[in-house]
Specification:
Blueprint (H helix, E strand, L loop, with lengths): L7 E4 L2 H4 L68 E9 L3 E8 L10 E8 H6 L3 H13 L8 E6 L3 E7 L6 H8 L4 H20 L2 E2 L8 E3 L5 E3 L6 E2 L7 E3 L6 H4 L7 H16 L9 H10 L10 H10 L15 H5 L9 H5 L37 H9 L11
Antiparallel strand pairs: 1-11, 2-3, 3-4, 4-6, 5-6, 7-10, 8-9
Helix pairs in contact: 5-7, 7-9
This protein binds adenosine-5'-triphosphate (ATP) and magnesium ion (MG).
The site of magnesium ion has 5 residues, from loops.
């Protein structure tokens, strides 16, 4: 349970494509420990309006970059940046379809924290092969709509002849996953801070009629002040009622997803219960070497707690992990308010939390701007894996021949 869990790709039924669901790998060594300096947030410029999808079938290249002489000193929401404007730096994470790279906007000085961005790169052929075109377009659309202090900020998107790219603000404090595995487990107060931020973010998303569907410590980052930022909207979906596709990560799947009964917002409250358990215990409540074993345990629902987990925490988790969606906390008439009113959150100042006025429990190590010391180390991407870096002229012929460009017009 120590290694990162990739999201299961979505499939129509578990039986049909169970082999496509990545299995838990054996424990990996933890990355190096973090000292604890203080950090101030870099001033975040306002979110740019989502760029309009190109109209014709022409390749979705952006206009040429601005010249460095007239360039502003921060990310310019009106500039139409292209791949050539970015310097590709360390890999921050790898996922099912691609990778996330730290990048620097070349015209901004390397000494500025806001010169750095996280670029999620997805190979179009893989997205098509794994039948994820709709999900990737939905990820782009939803991320460009949502705006919340605890959700990562998407700046803009691009495509070249091989990949689609999502350029987000760089969240430098690393994954909660790494902090949790390093600590073993979190004390109740630490857990409460993160879970409370997520209650606010889930409440916000559900009000936008978005279900997130991939809550897990690997998708939760810490900003420079130690506040939560949710990333990875690959499975987020606009849903008013129920939806049927199986997707998520095995240990975090609600029973109604496994049973293909149709699922809705309640799955995020279930996942929050799993997350609270995993933070307090150091491992999730239901897991097995094989996804099917995990599913069986989830459906059986034997919930056992380590002895150190107190009774109020147990009550919260049991209420969230109610297999009956009509009785699950968060999915009742009172919605997120019921969750906030649970005694476990007694004393939480929700407004101060949302405004970022509370001291976070873990302040990530803050090195030089653009440092990736809070992230695991990954191999560099293959040479030539981003053809657009050579410039749009150089990639023009391949782009014209790209059979997938029309599937990603919004990028
Ligand atoms: N804005 C960001 N700032 C810093 N790191 C990020 C950012 N976005 C993503 N990452 C890192 O990259 C990793 C992979 O990103 P993401 O989860 O979006 O990819 P994915 O391909 O959907 O992954 P998976 O399929 O495994 O869930 C994250 O777990 C995180 O470590
Ligand atoms: Mg992820």
């Amino acid at each position: 349970m120590a290694s990162r869990r990739e999201s299961a790709i979505s499939v129509d039924s578990i039986a049909a494509e169970s082999s496509a669901i990545p299995q838990s790998a054996p424990p990996a060594p933890l990355s190096k420990p973090l000292p604890n300096p203080h950090a101030d947030p870099p001033a975040a410029p306002a979110r740019p309006p989502p760029s309009a999808p190109p109209t014709g079938a022409a390749p979705a290249y952006r206009a040429a970059p601005q010249s460095a002489v007239s360039a502003p000193h921060t990310f310019d929401p009106d500039a139409q940046y292209s791949l050539e404007d970015y310097e590709i730096l360390d890999t921050l994470g790898t996922g099912t379809f691609g990778r996330v790279q730290l990048v620097r906007l070349k015209h901004l000085p390397a000494s500025r924290p806001d010169a750095y961005f996280a670029m999620k790169i997805l190979a179009k052929s893989e997205v098509v092969r794994l039948k994820q075109v709709e999900h990737i377009n939905s990820e782009r659309a939803i991320l460009s709509e949502v705006q919340h202090p605890f959700i990562v900020n998407l700046r803009h998107t691009l495509q070249d002849s091989r990949n689609v790219y999502m350029i987000m603000d760089y969240v430098p404090g690393g994954e909660i996953f790494s902090h949790l595995r390093r600590a073993g487990r979190f004390p109740t107060d630490v857990t409460r801070f993160y879970i409370a931020t997520l209650v606010l973010a889930i409440d916000y998303m559900h009000r936008q009629k978005v279900i997130y569907r991939d809550l897990k410590p690997e998708n939760l980052l810490l900003d420079s002040r130690g506040y939560t930022k949710i990333t990875d909207f690959g499975f987020a979906k606009h849903v008013e009622g129920r939806t049927w596709t199986l997707c998520g990560t095995p240990e975090y799947l609600a029973p109604e997803i496994i049973e293909s009964k149709g699922h809705g917002q309640a799955v995020d409250w279930w996942a929050l219960g799993i997350l609270a358990y995993e933070m307090l215990a150091g491992f999730p409540p239901y897991f097995d070497d094989h996804p099917f074993g995990t599913y069986e345990k989830i459906l059986k629902g034997n919930l056992a707690f380590p002895s150190h987990v107190d009774s109020v925490s147990r009550d919260l988790i049991r209420s969230l992990l109610n297999k009956d969606v009509s009785k699950r906390l968060g999915n009742l008439r009172g919605g997120a308010e019921d969750v906030k009113n649970h005694f476990w959150f007694h004393g939480v100042d929700w407004r101060a939390l949302e405004a970022g006025h509370l001291q976070a429990p873990i302040i990530p190590r803050r090195g030089a701007p653009g440092t990736t010391e809070n992230f695991s180390k990954y191999a560099a991407p293959e040479a030539n894996s981003m053809p657009g870096l050579r410039g749009r002229e150089a990639d023009a012929a391949a782009m014209a021949a790209d059979q997938y460009a029309h599937l990603f017009r919004a990028f």
